[in-house]
Amino acid sequence: MLELTHIQKSFDGVTVLKDISMQVEEGEIVSILGPSGCGKTTLLNLILGIVEADAGTICYNGEDLTRAAMEKRGFNIVFQDYALFPNLNVYQNITYGLKNRPGISTQKEVEELIHLLGLEEHLSKRVDQLSGGQKQRVALARTMVMKPRILLLDEPLSALDGVIKESIKDRIKTIAREFHLTTIIVTHDPEEALTLSDRVLIIDQGTIAQYGCPADIIQKPENDFVRTFILNQLEIKRNNIYALFGADAAGRAG
Ligand SMILES: Nc1ncnc2c1ncn2[C@@H]1O[C@H](COP(=O)(O)OP(=O)(O)OP(=O)(O)O)[C@@H](O)[C@H]1O
Prior knowledge:
This protein has helices spanning 40-48, 70-73, 90-95, 107-116, 132-144, 162-178, 190-196, 214-219, 224-253; strands at residues 2-11, 14-24, 29-33, 55-60, 63-64, 75-78, 150-154, 182-187, 199-204, 207-212. By secondary structure, the protein is an alpha/beta fold. It has 2 domains: 2-74 and 150-218, P-loop containing nucleotide triphosphate hydrolases (Rossmann fold); 84-147, no CATH class.
Protein backbone atom coordinates (compact mmCIF):
# COMPACT_ATOMS: atom_id res chain seq x y z
CA MET A 1 0.00 0.00 0.00
CA LEU A 2 1.16 3.53 -0.81
CA GLU A 3 0.46 6.00 1.96
CA LEU A 4 0.86 9.77 1.79
CA THR A 5 0.45 11.63 5.07
CA HIS A 6 0.05 15.41 5.42
CA ILE A 7 2.09 16.22 2.31
CA GLN A 8 2.92 19.90 1.79
CA LYS A 9 4.75 21.57 -1.07
CA SER A 10 5.48 25.20 -1.95
CA PHE A 11 7.38 26.72 -4.85
CA ASP A 12 9.00 30.13 -4.32
CA GLY A 13 6.84 30.83 -1.28
CA VAL A 14 3.61 29.87 -3.05
CA THR A 15 1.84 26.87 -1.50
CA VAL A 16 0.78 24.35 -4.13
CA LEU A 17 -0.13 21.38 -1.93
CA LYS A 18 -1.41 22.31 1.53
CA ASP A 19 -2.24 19.02 3.17
CA ILE A 20 -2.60 15.84 1.17
CA SER A 21 -3.18 12.49 2.88
CA MET A 22 -4.20 9.47 0.86
CA GLN A 23 -3.82 5.71 0.68
CA VAL A 24 -3.62 3.65 -2.48
CA GLU A 25 -4.19 -0.09 -2.16
CA GLU A 26 -2.13 -2.68 -4.02
CA GLY A 27 -3.45 -3.15 -7.57
CA GLU A 28 -5.76 -0.15 -7.39
CA ILE A 29 -6.18 2.38 -10.22
CA VAL A 30 -6.37 5.89 -8.76
CA SER A 31 -6.82 9.11 -10.73
CA ILE A 32 -5.67 12.50 -9.49
CA LEU A 33 -8.17 14.97 -10.88
CA GLY A 34 -8.42 18.75 -10.70
CA PRO A 35 -8.26 21.99 -12.67
CA SER A 36 -5.13 23.29 -14.34
CA GLY A 37 -2.47 24.39 -11.85
CA CYS A 38 -4.04 22.68 -8.81
CA GLY A 39 -0.92 20.60 -8.18
CA LYS A 40 -1.67 17.24 -9.85
CA THR A 41 1.69 16.83 -11.58
CA THR A 42 3.49 18.09 -8.49
CA LEU A 43 1.82 15.32 -6.47
CA LEU A 44 2.78 12.72 -9.10
CA ASN A 45 6.37 13.98 -9.11
CA LEU A 46 6.48 13.81 -5.31
CA ILE A 47 5.42 10.15 -5.45
CA LEU A 48 7.92 9.45 -8.25
CA GLY A 49 10.70 11.10 -6.25
CA ILE A 50 11.78 13.94 -8.55
CA VAL A 51 10.23 16.61 -6.30
CA GLU A 52 10.83 16.66 -2.56
CA ALA A 53 8.04 17.32 -0.05
CA ASP A 54 8.42 20.25 2.39
CA ALA A 55 6.52 18.29 5.02
CA GLY A 56 4.69 15.00 5.38
CA THR A 57 5.63 11.40 4.63
CA ILE A 58 5.44 8.95 1.74
CA CYS A 59 5.44 5.26 2.72
CA TYR A 60 5.21 2.16 0.56
CA ASN A 61 4.36 -1.13 2.24
CA GLY A 62 5.42 0.35 5.55
CA GLU A 63 8.79 1.63 4.29
CA ASP A 64 9.39 5.38 4.63
CA LEU A 65 10.42 6.63 1.17
CA THR A 66 9.97 10.36 1.83
CA ARG A 67 13.66 11.11 1.28
CA ALA A 68 14.47 8.07 -0.89
CA ALA A 69 15.95 8.70 -4.35
CA MET A 70 13.76 7.97 -7.35
CA GLU A 71 15.73 4.81 -8.31
CA LYS A 72 15.30 3.39 -4.81
CA ARG A 73 11.51 3.76 -4.92
CA GLY A 74 11.06 1.50 -7.96
CA PHE A 75 8.14 3.51 -9.29
CA ASN A 76 8.04 4.43 -12.94
CA ILE A 77 6.31 7.07 -15.03
CA VAL A 78 5.00 7.47 -18.55
CA PHE A 79 5.33 11.17 -19.36
CA GLN A 80 2.68 13.12 -21.22
CA ASP A 81 4.91 13.49 -24.31
CA TYR A 82 5.94 9.78 -24.11
CA ALA A 83 9.66 10.74 -24.19
CA LEU A 84 10.55 7.99 -26.68
CA PHE A 85 13.98 7.83 -28.34
CA PRO A 86 13.51 9.05 -31.94
CA ASN A 87 16.67 7.38 -33.23
CA LEU A 88 15.65 3.91 -32.03
CA ASN A 89 12.99 1.64 -33.45
CA VAL A 90 9.97 0.45 -31.46
CA TYR A 91 11.57 -2.77 -30.20
CA GLN A 92 14.77 -0.95 -29.20
CA ASN A 93 12.69 1.65 -27.35
CA ILE A 94 10.76 -1.03 -25.47
CA THR A 95 13.88 -2.93 -24.38
CA TYR A 96 16.16 0.08 -23.82
CA GLY A 97 15.96 0.02 -20.02
CA LEU A 98 16.83 -3.68 -19.92
CA LYS A 99 20.35 -2.92 -21.19
CA ASN A 100 21.32 -1.60 -17.77
CA ARG A 101 19.23 -4.08 -15.82
CA PRO A 102 19.18 -7.29 -17.88
CA GLY A 103 17.02 -10.11 -16.63
CA ILE A 104 14.43 -7.88 -14.99
CA SER A 105 12.00 -9.13 -17.67
CA THR A 106 12.55 -12.37 -19.59
CA GLN A 107 12.31 -12.50 -23.38
CA LYS A 108 8.96 -14.28 -22.96
CA GLU A 109 7.64 -11.53 -20.68
CA VAL A 110 8.72 -8.85 -23.17
CA GLU A 111 6.94 -10.74 -25.95
CA GLU A 112 3.80 -11.08 -23.83
CA LEU A 113 3.72 -7.33 -23.19
CA ILE A 114 4.26 -6.59 -26.89
CA HIS A 115 1.34 -8.91 -27.63
CA LEU A 116 -0.87 -7.43 -24.89
CA LEU A 117 -0.30 -3.95 -26.28
CA GLY A 118 -0.75 -5.08 -29.90
CA LEU A 119 2.66 -3.87 -31.04
CA GLU A 120 3.94 -6.94 -32.95
CA GLU A 121 3.53 -5.39 -36.39
CA HIS A 122 5.25 -2.13 -35.44
CA LEU A 123 8.47 -3.41 -33.86
CA SER A 124 10.85 -2.37 -36.61
CA LYS A 125 9.24 1.05 -37.23
CA ARG A 126 10.81 4.33 -36.22
CA VAL A 127 9.00 6.40 -33.60
CA ASP A 128 8.13 9.12 -36.14
CA GLN A 129 6.24 6.52 -38.19
CA LEU A 130 3.79 5.89 -35.34
CA SER A 131 0.41 7.41 -34.49
CA GLY A 132 -0.21 9.00 -31.08
CA GLY A 133 -1.98 5.89 -29.77
CA GLN A 134 0.85 3.64 -30.98
CA LYS A 135 3.45 5.89 -29.31
CA GLN A 136 1.46 5.74 -26.09
CA ARG A 137 1.45 1.91 -26.23
CA VAL A 138 5.21 1.82 -26.86
CA ALA A 139 5.75 4.16 -23.90
CA LEU A 140 3.59 1.89 -21.73
CA ALA A 141 5.47 -1.24 -22.86
CA ARG A 142 8.84 0.42 -22.26
CA THR A 143 7.83 1.29 -18.71
CA MET A 144 6.19 -2.06 -18.00
CA VAL A 145 9.23 -4.18 -18.98
CA MET A 146 11.03 -2.57 -16.03
CA LYS A 147 8.36 -4.03 -13.70
CA PRO A 148 7.59 -0.91 -11.68
CA ARG A 149 6.15 -1.34 -8.20
CA ILE A 150 3.79 1.52 -9.06
CA LEU A 151 2.93 2.78 -12.55
CA LEU A 152 2.49 6.56 -12.80
CA LEU A 153 0.80 8.07 -15.86
CA ASP A 154 0.74 11.81 -16.57
CA GLU A 155 -2.29 12.70 -18.74
CA PRO A 156 -2.03 9.41 -20.68
CA LEU A 157 -5.05 10.12 -22.89
CA SER A 158 -4.86 13.85 -23.45
CA ALA A 159 -3.18 13.64 -26.87
CA LEU A 160 -5.52 10.95 -28.13
CA ASP A 161 -8.98 11.11 -29.59
CA GLY A 162 -12.18 9.07 -29.72
CA VAL A 163 -11.81 5.38 -30.41
CA ILE A 164 -8.05 5.37 -29.77
CA LYS A 165 -8.64 6.92 -26.37
CA GLU A 166 -11.11 4.18 -25.43
CA SER A 167 -8.73 1.47 -26.62
CA ILE A 168 -5.80 2.85 -24.59
CA LYS A 169 -8.11 3.19 -21.58
CA ASP A 170 -8.98 -0.51 -21.90
CA ARG A 171 -5.33 -1.48 -22.23
CA ILE A 172 -4.36 0.50 -19.13
CA LYS A 173 -7.14 -1.26 -17.20
CA THR A 174 -6.10 -4.67 -18.57
CA ILE A 175 -2.45 -4.11 -17.63
CA ALA A 176 -3.33 -2.95 -14.12
CA ARG A 177 -5.59 -5.98 -13.57
CA GLU A 178 -3.35 -8.55 -15.26
CA PHE A 179 -0.22 -7.48 -13.37
CA HIS A 180 -2.08 -6.45 -10.21
CA LEU A 181 -0.22 -3.19 -10.66
CA THR A 182 -0.93 -0.11 -8.57
CA THR A 183 -1.55 2.65 -11.13
CA ILE A 184 -1.81 6.38 -10.47
CA ILE A 185 -3.04 8.62 -13.26
CA VAL A 186 -3.08 12.42 -13.54
CA THR A 187 -5.94 13.86 -15.55
CA HIS A 188 -7.97 17.05 -15.78
CA ASP A 189 -10.91 15.26 -17.43
CA PRO A 190 -13.68 14.08 -15.05
CA GLU A 191 -15.09 11.58 -17.53
CA GLU A 192 -11.67 10.00 -17.99
CA ALA A 193 -11.04 9.79 -14.25
CA LEU A 194 -14.45 8.35 -13.44
CA THR A 195 -14.44 5.71 -16.18
CA LEU A 196 -10.84 4.59 -15.74
CA SER A 197 -10.31 4.38 -11.99
CA ASP A 198 -11.28 2.46 -8.88
CA ARG A 199 -10.97 5.68 -6.90
CA VAL A 200 -10.59 9.35 -7.79
CA LEU A 201 -8.71 11.96 -5.76
CA ILE A 202 -10.10 15.41 -6.48
CA ILE A 203 -7.81 18.33 -5.63
CA ASP A 204 -8.98 21.88 -5.11
CA GLN A 205 -6.47 24.58 -4.22
CA GLY A 206 -3.94 22.22 -2.70
CA THR A 207 -6.37 20.21 -0.58
CA ILE A 208 -8.48 17.14 -1.15
CA ALA A 209 -12.03 18.00 -2.17
CA GLN A 210 -13.04 14.33 -2.21
CA TYR A 211 -11.40 10.91 -2.46
CA GLY A 212 -13.76 8.13 -3.35
CA CYS A 213 -15.03 5.61 -5.88
CA PRO A 214 -16.68 6.99 -9.03
CA ALA A 215 -20.20 6.02 -7.90
CA ASP A 216 -19.82 7.92 -4.61
CA ILE A 217 -18.44 10.99 -6.36
CA ILE A 218 -21.36 11.07 -8.76
CA GLN A 219 -24.07 10.17 -6.26
CA LYS A 220 -22.67 11.78 -3.11
CA PRO A 221 -20.52 14.78 -3.99
CA GLU A 222 -19.15 16.05 -0.68
CA ASN A 223 -18.98 19.77 -1.46
CA ASP A 224 -19.71 22.52 -3.96
CA PHE A 225 -16.38 22.19 -5.68
CA VAL A 226 -17.04 18.57 -6.61
CA ARG A 227 -20.57 19.44 -7.63
CA THR A 228 -19.58 22.36 -9.83
CA PHE A 229 -16.20 21.30 -11.23
CA ILE A 230 -16.91 17.64 -11.81
CA LEU A 231 -20.60 17.12 -12.15
CA ASN A 232 -21.33 20.31 -14.08
CA GLN A 233 -18.74 19.40 -16.69
CA LEU A 234 -20.29 15.99 -17.14
CA GLU A 235 -23.74 17.49 -17.35
CA ILE A 236 -22.65 20.05 -19.93
CA LYS A 237 -21.19 17.24 -22.05
CA ARG A 238 -24.37 15.21 -21.72
CA ASN A 239 -26.59 18.18 -22.55
CA ASN A 240 -24.48 18.97 -25.61
CA ILE A 241 -25.11 15.47 -26.91
CA TYR A 242 -28.84 15.61 -26.12
CA ALA A 243 -29.04 19.06 -27.73
CA LEU A 244 -27.67 17.48 -30.92
CA PHE A 245 -30.36 14.79 -30.83
CA GLY A 246 -32.98 17.42 -30.03
CA ALA A 247 -31.87 19.58 -32.95
CA ASP A 248 -31.81 16.55 -35.22
CA ALA A 249 -35.26 15.40 -34.11
CA ALA A 250 -36.65 18.93 -34.50
CA GLY A 251 -35.04 19.16 -37.94
CA ARG A 252 -36.63 15.91 -39.07
CA ALA A 253 -40.04 16.86 -37.64
CA GLY A 254 -39.90 20.17 -39.51
N1 LIG B 1 9.42 23.48 -10.38
C1 LIG B 1 8.52 24.44 -10.15
N2 LIG B 1 8.91 25.68 -9.79
C2 LIG B 1 8.01 26.66 -9.54
N3 LIG B 1 6.68 26.50 -9.62
C3 LIG B 1 6.23 25.30 -9.97
C4 LIG B 1 7.11 24.20 -10.26
N4 LIG B 1 6.36 23.11 -10.56
C5 LIG B 1 5.08 23.51 -10.49
N5 LIG B 1 4.98 24.81 -10.14
C6 LIG B 1 3.74 25.57 -9.94
O1 LIG B 1 2.89 24.81 -9.11
C7 LIG B 1 1.53 24.92 -9.52
C8 LIG B 1 0.97 23.55 -9.76
O2 LIG B 1 1.58 22.98 -10.90
P1 LIG B 1 1.27 21.51 -11.42
O3 LIG B 1 2.03 21.30 -12.69
O4 LIG B 1 1.46 20.55 -10.33
O5 LIG B 1 -0.31 21.65 -11.70
P2 LIG B 1 -1.27 20.71 -12.53
O6 LIG B 1 -2.49 20.56 -11.71
O7 LIG B 1 -0.56 19.47 -12.94
O8 LIG B 1 -1.59 21.61 -13.80
P3 LIG B 1 -1.89 21.24 -15.34
O9 LIG B 1 -3.17 20.46 -15.36
O10 LIG B 1 -2.03 22.57 -15.98
O11 LIG B 1 -0.72 20.44 -15.84
C9 LIG B 1 1.53 25.83 -10.74
O12 LIG B 1 1.18 27.11 -10.34
C10 LIG B 1 2.96 25.78 -11.23
O13 LIG B 1 3.32 26.97 -11.85
